[in-house]
TrEMBL record:
This is NAD-dependent epimerase. Residues 8-246 form the NAD-dependent epimerase/dehydratase domain. GO terms for molecular function: L-threonine 3-dehydrogenase activity. InterPro entries: Epimerase_deHydtase, NAD(P)-bd_dom_sf, NAD(P)_epim/dehydratase.
């Protein structure tokens, strides 16, 4: 059997980030060259229909080796992970999936001589002892969620594979991601997506974080641009081989509600904080991303209001 050369593998392609990143990569590299992979078939028609899909459980390395008999991958995006809130419900499994999954992908990439690997980290690598404002690239971390601990350990291992084996792994510490195409699952920042859906469906939203909980956030088009820009940067410009701080905006539930009220003055919000409040309180309020700006020219496009305008416009179109 002839192998398909120069393929790109996206693991976790059905997730909030994966479902958008896969389509973006297909635009750049051609539909047939970007292989979407996940533990389940995509519900999203555009993802299912626009290119190849493979079932991959990252905890089963044979799934990856089986793919290698049909594709020669030049890049892998490994996005499959359990997020912060879900992770706290089953910490041992979150650790196993997030860490063993990463090892399986890094080892597969080495074995297959994959040119570049992308792996996302998060603001969750920081903890209650980190500076909360303008959190620097290098500072006290001490994450206290299993998700954050797995992301910090993952960063160390990515850097290790780069230094020790020369594997070109690249990573970003995403803030909360907001997009209209797919829902997030099991994160602490998910409220900032739900709120737009509920504003249109019900005109009211009950928030699981308190009104003044400020967190770093980013609109999906900026997250896609950052990921692709980082992967396109010449290797020598990628000086941070753990993971880059990345920022766009920070806001509170009260502020996003006010931003929605510019369009829907009758929209109301109530607050009923749950266990996710404690996680949010351990994270930074704003992030210093000067290393990303200097090294490979990062520059976000969206702020809170321009994001709200775009989110509501698209959601209204989808709902009609
Ligand atoms: N958005 C993620 C979460 O809330 C953090 O990376 O878990």
């Amino acid at each position: 059997m002839t192998k398909q050369k120069n393929a790109i593998l996206v693991i976790g392609a059905c997730g909030q980030l994966g479902s958008e990143l896969t389509l973006e990569l297909r635009k750049i590299y051609g539909d047939a060259n970007v292989v979407a992979a996940d533990i389940q078939y995509p519900k999203q028609a555009d993802l299912r229909e626009s290119g190849p899909f493979e079932i991959v459980d990252v905890l089963t390395p044979q799934h990856l080796t089986e793919l290698a008999s049909r594709y020669k991958f030049k890049q892998i995006y490994h996005l499959a992970a359990i997020l912060s809130a879900t992770g706290e419900k089953n910490p041992k499994f979150a650790w196993r999936l997030n860490m063993d999954g990463l090892f399986n992908v890094l080892d597969f990439a080495l074995e297959q001589k994959v040119e570049k690997v992308y792996w996302p980290s998060s603001i969750a690598v920081f903890g209650p002892n980190s500076p909360r404002q303008n959190t620097p690239q290098d500072t006290i971390m001490d994450p206290n969620t299993v998700y954050g601990i797995s992301k910090q350990a993952g960063e160390r291992w990515c850097e290790y594979y780069f230094n020790k084996y020369g594997l070109d792994v690249r990573s970003l510490r995403y803030p909360g991601l907001i997009g209209y195409k797919a829902l997030p699952g099991g994160g602490t920042t998910d409220y900032a997506v739900d709120i737009y859906h509920q504003a249109l469906a019900l005109g009211t939203y009950k928030c699981f974080l308190s009104e003044n909980t400020r967190l770093p956030m980013m609109y999906m088009p900026d997250a896609l641009k950052a990921t692709i820009d980082l992967m396109h940067a010449p290797a020598e410009q990628v000086k941070v081989r753990s993971s880059y701080n990345l920022a766009a905006m920070s806001f509170t539930p009260q502020e996003i509600a006010a931003s929605i009220q510019r369009h829907y003055p009758d929209f109301t919000i109530t607050y009923d904080p749950d266990s996710r409040q404690q996680i949010a309180d351990s994270w930074p309020q704003s992030i210093n991303d000067s290393a990303a700006r200097q090294d490979w020219g990062w520059n976000p496009q969206y702020d809170l209001h321009t994001m709200t305008d775009d989110m509501l416009r698209h959601l209204k179109r989808i709902n009609n």
